[in-house]
Design brief:
The chain is α+β, with helices and mostly antiparallel strands. The chain contains six helices and five strands. Helices cover 30% and strands 15% of the residues. The radius of gyration is 17 Å and the shape is globular.
Length: 168
């Protein structure tokens, strides 16, 4: 039998993630983007790595405001969320050369929400042929890159863009 070393999952498996308060509100308030795995901060939403990713580059777009329903968000919050999703798509294509992308939200416990009350949009990179024997036979997903490396690859692509005035 072979062992897979996945130290970042220990906190999840041991129940360490069940701290008090909302994990998304904590990450949104954090001043340490590296330890909270925040990749980019917008005006109404931020982009954060999923601590328990399905694939490398699995990010989430999270509003700073604690809402469990899309209907409670403002048009500006919703607009920025979608603009950030498009930007994530471009960055993930450039950095990870993805072939596809799953976007999704789980609103409410029956829908599979792991964090109730604070909605977030998942963006999961996909590649042609990304199902391997481990997933099919062993029901185990192997994520070959650590979260710090993923954040280091993605964060520079979200630095503020300088607007260059074009001549007409």
């Amino acid at each position: 039998m072979r062992n897979l070393f996945t130290p970042w999952r220990y906190a999840y498996l041991s129940g360490g993630r069940r701290g008090k308060g909302c994990v998304f509100c904590k990450a949104g308030r954090s001043r340490d983007d590296a330890s909270s795995l925040v990749v980019h901060r917008g005006r109404f939403n931020y982009i954060v790595l999923n601590r328990f990713p399905y694939n490398n580059g699995h990010v989430m777009i999270v509003p700073y405001s604690h809402h469990g329903d899309l209907a409670r968000m403002t048009p500006a919050q919703l607009r920025e969320m979608l603009v950030l999703a498009a930007r994530c798509e471009s960055v993930l294509k450039r950095v990870y050369r993805i072939d596809g992308l799953n976007l999704g939200m789980n609103l409410g416990s029956p829908a599979g929400a792991g964090v109730l009350g604070h909605l977030h949009l998942h963006l999961v990179p996909r590649w042609n042929g990304d199902t391997n024997f481990m997933t099919v036979v062993g029901r185990t997903r192997v994520t070959p890159e650590g979260l710090d490396a993923t954040r280091s690859k993605l964060a520079p692509h979200f630095l503020p863009r300088r607007h260059v005035r074009r001549k007409r």
